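explain this:

___
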Amino acid sequence: MKKKMISLLAALGLVLTAAGCGGKEDLPLALLDVEQYVTLGDYNNLDVQVEPAEVSDDEVDYYLYTIYTSYLTEETGGITDRPVAVGDTVCLDYEGKKDGVAFDGGTAQNSSLTIGSGAFIDGFEDGLVGVMPGETVDLNLSFPDPYPNNPDLAGQPVVFTVTVRYIMPLYEEMNDETVAAIAPLAGMENVSTVEQMRQYVYDALFQMVQSNYEISLENAILDALIQSCTFEETLPEQLLEESRENISQNLDAFAQAYGMDRESFAAANYQMTADEVIETYAPNGVKQNLTLQAIANQEGLGVDDELLDSMLEEDAANAGYESVEEYMGEVSREGFRNYYMSQRVIDFLKGLYQGE
């Protein structure tokens, strides 16, 4: 339920507006005369345009190679039998010292560097050409002057002690033996060849883009649905209050997840104060819930007590809870009823769009 609720929030297009799954006194939408607040449009023929879920070969290649090289070591496929050449990407450890004392930002382990890229100060990359993996060299260099990144080092002589651990293989040099060694480290089960790893990466990427597609589709359907409807100017105050409370709670939760306070989060993402976000989006959530319930009434997609009990029991068991009560936590039965109704209607609308 928790994962589904997060997905639903995103799918509704109003990330901060919960679909009636709040406190113990949620208003039962099924008992509300929603038709006095909303006049439905033609929801059977909504104009919805959403790009299909696709994964390109370039995306698969990029992530395949990134994962492959991320788990390399000297023992699991890193090249160690030839010297470093210009164009190689190497894994190295280094420590920079000035007057024998290590300076800030001058030390790293398992760092990658493409020789010839110019990413490091003059002489660093040139000094590694011809070095065999496993060797350690001292590079006597000087920082450029000026050096904005650290003015204290501008023009100063330093010594970098560098150990080349291994050379990264090129994409076309990936091999089954290395995949078999690194796949378990990457958490990939039943993967022992490059092609199997490529398929694994494709499946993972497609699952991600398919999930994003589903969210985008639900967003687009709901946006078009609300645009097709007509609403009374005055909305039920209890629903508005529930929507305000849900938005407030979600503002705090999202802000905390991003390491921010609610005001900073609201300003950064909505260019509003938190109170302005709440007052702006609360009516949208109410309109959405009223519309979904109106369609549920018309299409027989409501959730009666028997169905609610069945769905709660199934979800509680699937989520590994010992009882429905433990699974429900602080959410009311009506909150779950409203949620399940919303999901049934959304699935119905998606089916119309997809021709099911």
User: Anything to note?
Assistant: Residues 1-24 have pLDDT under 50 and may be disordered. Residues 189 and 308 are 37 Å apart (CA to CA). The two ends are 25 Å apart (CA to CA).
